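Methods — Computational structure assignment.
A single polypeptide chain was analysed. Its primary sequence is given first, followed by the predicted tertiary structure written as structure tokens.
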Amino acid sequence: MSKERKLLKIVCFLYVLDALACLVFGGFTLAGMGLLDPADVVSVGGIDFNLQAWAVVFGIWGIASGVFYLIYAGAGIRGANTPRRIGPFRAMSLVAVVFSVVGLVLGVALDGAAANMSMYVVSIAFAVLCFVLSGKIKEQADR
């Protein structure tokens, strides 16, 4: 097994932890939205949103990202084990970057930079690393 395949497998196992963190933070956001004052409003791009509704969107996005990251990590582990199957994972890497960036933007819009923003920054870094590693693994499989 090449060093790229080993590193991809390690990163994917770390991605499972990131996915679980997304699920937990998404669940906490949904569970805590009742504590927000319905009269509180957040302005995004000149449009005012109810803070509770925004929390619902962010919570659902966190749970959706966590589920996607679990599937993504499984595909990466599978691709690391069988390099011929790395193609779909490479495409999913771009989707993972989009999920991470949107989550980061939603989180900053909801409450500025907070602890849960770090998991989206980690997700972006992992997704870019996975994209690069999967490209190298694809080259090795094509030889």
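Note: Helices lie at 3-32, 51-81, 87-111, 115-142.
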